Amino acid sequence: MDSTDHDALPAILSVTGIGKTYVEPVLSDIALTLRAGEALALTGENGAGKSTLSKIIGGLVAPSTGTMRLAGAPYAPASRTQAEALGVRMVMQELNLLSTLSVAENLFLNRLPQRAGVPLGWIDRRRLRADARDAMAQVGLEAIDPDTLVGELGIGHQQMVEIARNLIGDCRVLILDEPTAMLTAREVDLLFEQVDRLKARGVALVYISHRLEELARIAERIAVLRDGRLVHLGEMANLTSDRIVTLMVGREIGERIDLGERRIGATLLKIDGLGRADVVRDVSFDVRAGEIFGVSGLIGAGRTELMRLIYGADLKDRGTVSLAAAPGTPPVPLQIASPADAVRHGIALITEDRKGEGLLLPQPVAANISLGNIGRVARHGFVDAQRENALANQQIAALRIRTSGPAQPVGELSGGNQQKVVIGRWLARDCKVLLFDEPTRGIDVGAKFDIYALMGALARDGRALVVVSSDLRELMLICDRIGVMSAGRMTGIFERDAWSQDALLAAAFAGYRSREALLETHDAQAGGLS
Predict the structure, then answer these.
(1) What's the rounded Cα separation, in Å, for the pair 21 and 19?
(2) What CATH code would you report for 260-346+432-530?
(3) Residue 428: helix, strand or coil by DSSP?
(4) What sign does the CA torsion over 483, 484, 486, 492 have?
(5) How far is CA 372 from CA 351, 376, 396, 398, 413, in A?
(6) 78: left (phi over 0), alpha (psi -120 to 50) or beta
(7) What pLDDT shows up at residue 517?
(8) pTM for this entry
(9) Which residues are paired to 18 by β-bridges?
(10) pLDDT of 520
(11) Dihedral sign (CA 478, 484, 485, 486)
């Protein structure tokens, strides 16, 4: 479809002069139009205003200035429910599901079918299951029982349930905010098939993502925000990925990064035979002072579970975690029965779920940074606000956290700045070992390079970094060595000069191939005995 075809499509939603101010402006004078049957890519750095604009359109946030029109009529939703009733739906990064209810109940929570001829409140379970199966089939969830509790599903399936929920009923505008962050490749393909169907039905889509290859795959036009302003609106086909990145960050970013001159010292952290059931199976590796050690592998390979064992969030069945007490001294086995023990020994974990496990979102930046440093900010058993703010300001300046100040609720910050707050908490405590689990997930290109630069500074300071990432290119960019997890085992450790993408991927599948071979041998032996 060329630009002339796009211009001929009817306008579904138009926004004019939209702005939003909290302590300071986060959106200014945004004007754009959504057309029937097309996908508009919305991108920009974290903090550029993408989520705020989406929440204004979706009825979650009221604009400070500007107007909107839906199908030619004035549009000013007072709530998300009101926006949904008018056909404007939004799938947010934070899932809007109740884990203790079934998939079917979550899908039809506000419109549960009632049984005829019985008192009000009796649910028609048969019809509910049938309707749920129809809705789930749209996103490829036919194999899941609609009576399954949502809390029993993996995060990727929960995301698909959330998408299915928003496709029920009349949908004229659908906003997808980072919808593929937790999805497998197959689930992404299913989502894109559904996007094509929606466009064929005349639905207008806003697609927010930092994955530029996805934007090129499904979007006809692109809107780029920077510092709360619309800096580009045009045809997707006219922009290269490099040009989009330049528009987002306002500067050129290369594919290489200089982490500075580092001196990699003696072994600081040593993992020996660490395991828990079949999830993590006898993993051994070491990390030296000043080194960035990457951990790669497929989803479900045991990467996060390994970090949790080292940190004491899960209890190990076997193996040891050892740490050098001083530079150049041999690592000594530690007794780690809880995260508190790990932190006391100087080991910190930056969790993959920063919103659910790493931060207190309603609390201010200062409280989140002081959370792991109460001893530094308390006097006579009470938190000293002056000390707490001083500590927060120190980390805000050191990490260049974009915030109005230490009193701003951390939930109002962008994903990249939230991640910096989590890191700042542990930097203030001077931990020797930092475990990063998916540190740049959901973070834009510019903020990623800020995090990489910060990792380089930590390594130059002689700390040991362990970085788990699903992005193989990211690990190859920043790491000195990469260990590959497969089916709970570490199947290979590669030096920077010796790795290749093919070798790393082969190691990621190796554990599953050996497990399949073992099962085939077992089956053959069982057949021979019968």
Answers:
(1) 7
(2) 3.40.50.300
(3) helix
(4) negative
(5) 14, 9, 16, 17, 20
(6) alpha
(7) 45
(8) 0.58
(9) 30
(10) 47
(11) positive
d(CA 499, CA 171): 48
Predicted pLDDT at 513: 57
Could you give the CA distance from residue 401 to residue 391 in angstroms, rounded to a whole number? 13
Domain positions in the chain are: 3-249, 260-346+432-530, 354-430
Residue 152 CB contacts under 8 Å (≥ 6 apart), including other chains: none
CB 369 within 8 A of CB 428: yes
**CB 174, CB 163: distance < 8 Å:** no
Residue 61 to residue 28: CA distance in whole angstroms: 15
Q: What would the two tokens of residue 90 be?
A: 């939004």
Give the bridge partners for 435, in sequence order: 349, 466
What is d(CA 320, CA 328) in angstroms, rounded to the nearest whole number? 20
How far does Cα 99 stand from its chain's mean position?
19
Ranges of residues in the chain with a pLDDT under 70 are 1-9, 23, 46-47, 117-121, 182, 184, 249-256, 299, 442, 444, 512-530
Between β-strands 433-437 and 464-468, what pairing exists: parallel, antiparallel or unpaired? parallel
Same topology for domains 3-249 and 260-346+432-530, yes or no?
yes
Residue 158 parent element (H or E): helix 155-166
Nearest Cα neighbor of 12 from 39, 46, 44, 45 is: 39
User: Which tokens sit at 419?
Assistant: 């991640």
**What number of other Cβ atoms are within 10 A of residue 484's Cβ?**
29
The C-alpha atoms of residue 401 and residue 389 are separated, in whole angstroms, by 14
Residue 221's pLDDT is 95
Predicted pLDDT at 522: 44
Could you give the C-alpha distances from 367 to 46, 110, 377, 408, 418, in angstroms and in order?
Answer: 22, 37, 10, 10, 13
pLDDT at position 451 = 86
CATH superfamily of 3-249: P-loop containing nucleotide triphosphate hydrolases (3.40.50.300)
Rounded-to-10 torsion of CA 253, 476, 452, 491: 160
**Which two tokens mark 488?**
């709970």
Could you give the CA distance from residue 438 to residue 395 in angstroms, rounded to a whole number? 21
Task: Report the greatest alpha carbon distance in the chain.
Answer: 79
CB 408 within 8 A of CB 370: no
In angstroms, the CA 88 to CA 81 distance is 9
The alpha-helical segments, DSSP class H, found in 167-240 are 185-200, 212-218
Q: Could you give the CA distance from residue 191 to residue 218 in angstroms, rounded to a whole number?
A: 11
Helix (H) / strand (E) element for 458: namely helix 445-460
Radius of gyration of the chain from its Cα atoms, rounded to whole angstroms: 25
* Structure tokens, 214: 């996805």
